[in-house]
Structures are given as C-alpha cells and as structure tokens.
Amino acid sequence: MTLLSVEGMTKSFGGRRVLRDVSFTIGAGEIVGLVGTNGAGKSTLGDIVSGITPADAGTMTLLGHPYAPLSAQDACHLGVGVVEQLVTIDPELTVAQAVFRGTPQAGRQQSELREQARVLCREVDLDADPDDLVGELPHFVHPLVETARVLAEDTRLVVLDEVSAVLLPSEVTRLHAVAARLSRQGRGVLYISHRLPEMLEVVDRVLVLREGRIALDRPSASLDPVRLAGETVGGPVSLPVRRQPAALQSSRAEDAPLPAPARPARSDEVALQVRNLRVPGAVEGVDLVLRRGEVVGLTGHRTSGVREIAGALTGELPALSDEALLHGEPRLLTPSADVEALRLPAYRPDEDAYGVDPGETIARTLTDEPWGALTDLRKEIASLRRVIKTVHSLDVKTLSIRTSVGALSGGDQHKLALARWMASARDVVVLHEPARGLDVRARQQVRQLLDEATAHGTSVVVVSVDPDELADFCDRVGIVADGRVARWIDTGELAVDAVRERIVEAATAAA
Ligand SMILES: Nc1ncnc2c1ncn2[C@@H]1O[C@H](COP(=O)(O)OP(=O)(O)OP(=O)(O)O)[C@@H](O)[C@H]1O
C-alpha cells in the first residue's frame, strides 16, 4: 500500500532551483533512504513532506488522500512527523511533557501520561525517567525523545533528518531497531543520512537526489556504499586511502597559500606527551603521545570518559597528570601561577550553529580583515580572491559570496566554519566531529585540509563518534572505556574499511 506519493515537486530559493520535478513514493512499512551531496536539497524535500516549508509546485497524497500541510503542526495532525539532528526541546519540560507536547492531553491523568511515556521511552531504548527534565539529559538523546514523541503522535510517516550523524555505532544500532519497529507497525520512514554504510544496513530502498532531481530510485540490496557515493556525485569516487604520517614541511608565512603536501614521511618528534591524565570521576590514567603532524582519533561511549579527556586537553575541565609536555615544555592541565596551562584550541561543529554567524556573509566569514577599514585595494582584492578560491575548492553551493551563511545547507556551513578555523590552526589542536554531516566529496576536502595542516606540523586529536571519519582521517585510534584507553588501533596497517570494522567492533564491545 502506498503511504506517501510525491508528484512533480519543485522548489527554488532566491533564484536557485533546489528541487526540479521530484516524484517518488513511500510504501507502508517501508524505510526509504534519501541521500545526496551537501546542498542537494534533502532537508528541503524532508521539510516539504513534513510541512515546514511549502513547495512551489507539485502535489502529494497520504494514504490516497490529497496532502498539503500548511505547517509542521498540520503535518503532524495529518500523520507525518520529523525528527531532526539538532533538535531544540524546551529544557524545562519533563520527558513526559516533551513526549506528549504535540498531542491533546485534555482529560488525561498525569499518572497515565507518565506511565505511557515510560513505555514509549522503553520502545525507543531511552534510559530516562518520565519526570526527568529534558535539559538535564545529554543532548545526544534528544532525538530519541523526539522519536518517542513521534510514536505518541501516532505518526504514519517519520522523517529522520540526519539523526544518525551525531550517534555512536551502538546508538545507530538502537536507532535502526526503532526504525525497524516503526516499519513493522506499518509506518513509513524517510531516512536522510550521509553515513552511507550504516544507512544501507537498514533501508529497503534508496533515493538519490542529484541536481534537484531523483537520479536513482533503487532497492538497497543492489547497492554498496562506494557505488552509492558515486551515484550521489554523478561519477566515480575514489575510495578513501589510508592516511600516512605527514611529511613535514618548513613553516610558512601566516598568509602564504598552502602548497600541496609532499610525499608523506614519518616524524618522530613528539609534539604532546601526557602521562597518567586524570579527570576526577571520569578519566583514570590515560597516556597520550602525539607526534608532530600526527592525527590521533579518540572514540568511546558517552560515559567512557572520551569527552572528558578532550575537555582536560582544552582546559575546560580541571584535570591532573604526572607529566604534560608540549614540545618538551612542561604544562599543567589545571592552571597555576607558575606553569602555563595546556589549553589546546578546539573546534566543535555544533557550537553557535556550526561555529559561524548565520547572519554574516560568506565573504566576511572567510576573512579576518575589517573590510570597512581596508584602504589598500590590492589587499582587498587578494582577500576576495582567497574567499573565492576557498568557496570553489570546497564546492560551496551558492550564487554569490554575499549570500549569508545561514542560507547555505548545513554541510556547506560546516565546511566554511572548519576551513576558517583550520586556516589559523597551528601546533596541536582538538577537532570534534570534523566530518559531521558532510558528503563524500566534502569529507575528502576536509581530509585534504587535515593533510595540509599536518604536513605543516600541526598535530590533531580527532574526537568522533563516526567510524568512517576516524578510519579515514586518523593515524591511530584510541577506544576509550571506563576512563582509560582500552585499545589503540593503528590505521597504517590496514585498508580503511578494515579499520572501520575494527573500530565498530571495539567501540561496540567497549560500550
Ligand atoms: N531558507 C533558505 N533560504 C535560502 N536558501 C536555502 C534555504 N534553505 C535551503 N536553501 C538552499 O537550498 C539548497 C539545499 O539545501 P538543503 O539544506 O535542502 O540541502 P541538503 O541536501 O539537506 O544539504 P546538507 O546535506 O548539507 O544538509 C542549499 O543550496 C541551500 O543553500
């Protein structure tokens, strides 16, 4: 039975045609994957289906009836719900209130609602009490609260918009179990993701959006991640190649363009050494050695201590160590009057909506010079050239560098923020989830940014939940469990997908 039918959908934003004559169906009990490059229009399509954005033209039917939602609330009443990656739920609500906030509650006992909320939380594998405040739950479980809400609203079709992007492999398995349960109940799921290997494990069929059209509509059984990645870009994609320790180049002037990295060669120079790192209640003795130009990954369950290790390195958490040396110079993890604190700079994609001001133009985001005060025309031209080069090399989908960053797709915003941040990254830095929400080409571009930085001596700690990102970007990956590094995986010995398998295996075992 057809649940949703979309016919001839089109949508433009300010002269840019995002969707062109898009048609597809989703059957009852079907899980359909929606993939495409950053800016391909996946969220726009998801937003139209879930009533957040109106289409310019086209029609939809839901269970055979005309379906034209006027708002997200309207779509929800008609049976379509959306769960987004960056969910904002009022932190003052209890879990029970959050779960039932979209459903009429008149005449229902609070105790009954709480009991039902408890059942729904169990259904989505959410370990929370109905009376817990949402604001006190870790942010990564908010999509699970939302999924429970969608179940409470008796939704026929659920749009999961990049929900898996922030989840660990074990949490993705949980999400997939929820999607499978929804499907067994006869509901439909539209599953939007860039994490192709995982997505292919759960979806029945895949739609590829390319240049605003459905370029492929095929059962998932006939696809593999590499082929699917090729379909998203409309040509072959090269497999990620194993990272090699960086070939260090001589230091460069601050604003000199980055030359292509030379052939890699091993560096034995230690950039950072920390012995017996402890964070009270979270980390119980971690040794970390980071060579110059090395990329070391850290991953682990939410309570493993991995975030706290990063917090200690960046000076956000009070921590102790027997010794911390930055290029041989002693540092303290907790500041004191005599010894300088370590305080590594950190990049986080989720801060301030991808770390950039959404109201700012692309041009201003990528330049540090105060343009209004710039009196030297050559400098201004050089600065604009650099902006245009970055926009081209990162393949940001825009008609103008005067476009505000907030109007770009999520992936394009993240690429710009990271490029801006990496341009000033020196020495030893911490990157949180550097490829989150990025398509296959964008991941390669980020990998290139990393390779260039490490070739110039920058050492990087990558903290991530994504096994593909860790396997592709890092020289070594530490699996953190119970406040210690339970295992190191050396990526240099294996092909990237074999590394990925090991990370998933080790991270799941340690969870
Ligand atoms: N409100 C808006 N105003 C202007 N342009 C917009 C708006 N919303 C989306 N766009 C543009 O529409 C295009 C598609 O964006 P959309 O977010 O749907 O892409 P996406 O495939 O979900 O990308 P990503 O994977 O990066 O999240 C982008 O070029 C984006 O700049």
UniProtKB/TrEMBL annotation:
Superkingdom, taxonomy of origin: Bacteria
InterPro entries: AAA+_ATPase, ABC_carbohydrate_import_ATPase, ABC_transporter-like_ATP-bd, P-loop_NTPase
One Pfam entry name: ABC_tran
GO molecular function: ATP binding; ATP hydrolysis activity
Domain ABC transporter: 4-236, 265-507
Region (Disordered): 237-267
SUPFAM superfamilies: P-loop containing nucleoside triphosphate hydrolases (SSF52540)
Keyword line: ATP-binding, Nucleotide-binding, Repeat, Transport
Coiled coil: none
SMART domains, per the entry: AAA (SM00382)
Protein name: Sugar ABC transporter ATP-binding protein
